[in-house]
Design a protein that fits this description.
Strands 2-1-3 form a three-stranded parallel sheet, with helices on both faces. The chain contains five helices and three strands, in the order ααβαβαβα. Helix 1 runs parallel beside helix 2. The chain is mainly alpha-helical and 135 residues long. The chain has a single domain, classed as 3-Layer(aba) Sandwich (Rossmann fold), CATH 3.40.50.
Length: 135
C-alpha cells in the first residue's frame, strides 16, 4: 500500500484520465514504468509542473528516526524516482511547530505537491490552510 502513495498523489492531480490508471484499478499491485509514465503525462497535461520541466514534491516525514517513518520515506522515494519526480524531504520531528515551518519552506520553494506526515492535531488547522492556499 505504501508503494502507491506517490502514484496516488499524481492521480490526485490528474483526477480521471482515460490514458492513465484509474483509482479503482489500484489494488496494491506494483505500478509499472509504463503506468508511471502515463500518470505523469496525464498529470502534466492537466497541471504542468511549476518549473516547466518536472514535478517537485515535498515530503514532510513524521520523524526520520522512527523505523515506520523510514519505511514510509523509502517507499515514497522509490515511487518518486520511478515517476521521475524530484523529492524534497524534511523531518517534522513529531513536532507541530516544525511541521508548520516545513510546510512554509515548501511553499517558499514553490513545489508542486506536498505530502504532509504529522500527528500534532493542534497544528493541522495551521498547516493545511497555508498549503491549500498556496497550491
Amino acid at each position: 500500500m505504501q508503494r502507491l502513495l506517490t502514484a496516488t498523489a499524481i492521480l490526485a492531480l490528474v483526477a480521471s484520465t482515460a490514458s492513465a490508471l484509474e483509482p479503482s484499478e489500484l489494488k496494491g499491485q506494483d505500478i509499472t514504468a509504463e503506468d508511471y509514465a502515463a500518470l505523469v503525462e496525464a498529470a502534466m497535461a492537466k497541471m504542468p509542473p511549476r518549473n516547466g520541466e518536472s514535478y517537485v514534491f515535498g515530503f514532510a516525514n513524521l520523524q526520520r528516526s522512527l523505523r515506520f517513518g523510514i519505511l514510509v520515506e523509502e517507499s515514497i522515494e522509490a515511487n518518486a524516482e520511478a515517476a521521475g519526480v524530484e523529492l524534497l524531504i524534511t523531518d517534522n520531528r513529531l513536532d507541530g511547530l516544525v511541521a508548520l515551518q516545513n510546510a512554509e519552506s515548501y511553499i517558499q520553494q514553490d513545489v508542486d505537491y506536498v505530502i504532509e506526515f504529522q500527528t500534532d492535531v493542534n497544528f493541522g488547522p495551521a498547516v493545511m490552510p497555508n498549503l491549500n492556499t498556496a497550491f
